[in-house]
Fold this protein.
Amino acid sequence: MKIYKITIASAIIIAGFFTQNAAAQQVLTEETFKVGRTLALIDASYVDSVNVNKLAEDMIIYTLKKLDPHSTYISAKDVREMNEPLQGNFEGIGIQFNILHDTLLVIEPIAGGPSEKVGLHAGDRIVTINGEKVTNIGMSTAGVYSRLRGPKGTIANLTIFRKGEKELLDFTITRDKIPIFSLNAAYMLDDQTGYVKLDKFSATTEKEFREALVNLKKSKFKNLIIDLRSNGGGYMLAATDMADHFFADQRLLVYLIGRKTPRQDFKSTGTGDLSNTRVVVLTDENSASASEIFAGAMQDWDRGVIIGRRTFGKGLVQNGYYLTDGSMIRLTIARYYTPTGRSIQSSYKDGYDKYMTDFFKRYTKGGEIFSPDSIPLPDTLKYKTLVSKRIVYGGGGIIPDVFVAQDTSFLSEYYRALFRKDIFRSFTLEYADANRAMINKEYRNFDDFRNRFVFTSDELRSFIKKGEDAGIKYNDDQYKHSEEEILLILKALVASNIWQINEYFRIINQNDTVIEKALQIINDGNTYNRILGYQK
């Protein structure tokens, strides 16, 4: 029987094993102590001083990277920041803000939050937080977060500069739980088609979706377009809960299984209130994880048309294990499978670097964001949908029923340079701040703004000059090539600063080729049914 002397350095590695769920039945093996012994020897005897904590972290990161692309180590300081968007709330004063010319500018108090309740306004400048000056000191966004967020019930004392007021204004704000929304937009695209944009699947997604449906039902929508482009996923149950709305009976939505994880099936409840609604799901190469679970269930049951481009291909299930210092290991424990048995996960057999290289190849000339021809479709990955028996493929991501290439027709080097230098955002932030009162007076509501607003020639010259001041040489031919998209983005960003992100999408989607294709299909019953295999 071997007796092990456990040193402090050894504990860095092995102590975390004692903090896990007992059901995992983790055992301290010879290999476990070998790793701890190595760190202990380095700490005790190495020729130079070494940060053993950093060495341990590097060792964990390297080891997990060798397993698969999605097993990761998260430092203690990053754990809370990672969890907040998925939990659907954080604790703070409840404002959307931006830093403009080294000044903290309130874009909008969050509806129902503590800042709105005490009377903060869009356009207010925060001068001090709890007596500390926060203007003209080069404060970062992280620095603002650390000062404005805090436990529910604690106090934040703010001094505010407000245009039109002779004196600075003092506000005492009691921090509270602030919602983080996963649903960015919900509105009618035409007189019978609703549109819902989700940027993640969080603990509150299904509730947000239900609330959006209430408003859409007032407009008597018949069809629904669900936009999951650039939705990186989140909670699996949020995806299955949302999918539940579309099935009138109990059907398998996804299952998972792993070496030490018995198969688990997740089914619809059979109470779907949208079971007769035509559905289109929009995806792209950045739709991942829970987005792929939702899209896969809809496709496998021939329940909705998938339009866009192949999804990312993340079908690995991670479980979070906390270590003693508050850090976390997110370890892959199982794989997701769609109802037909397709694996969502792209191959990583050649290692992490090759895995990421294969993904970025999608963006190269001739890559699959421009044409689906480069997607590998071997017969060994061929499956049939469960109702219409259409051919679909596994092996990585969800391949859409209708492919729409990425639109690059408006791109120019001048346009790209404006984006790289953040000219769009900075110009519209200044513009909305300077013209907020005029816009609210001139336009009765958002619809009036959308229909009538145009930038003047002087305003566009100011935009161009802002680019020149940042080192972007004006190119008239390239500007004219990209002009329609430039004006649309500028208008959408102003709308989001005056109203909300919902209004941003109501403008930017006007020039979206994927949405245009989705509307053509969803409003044509014959085409919709033919794609789903209901008409031969």
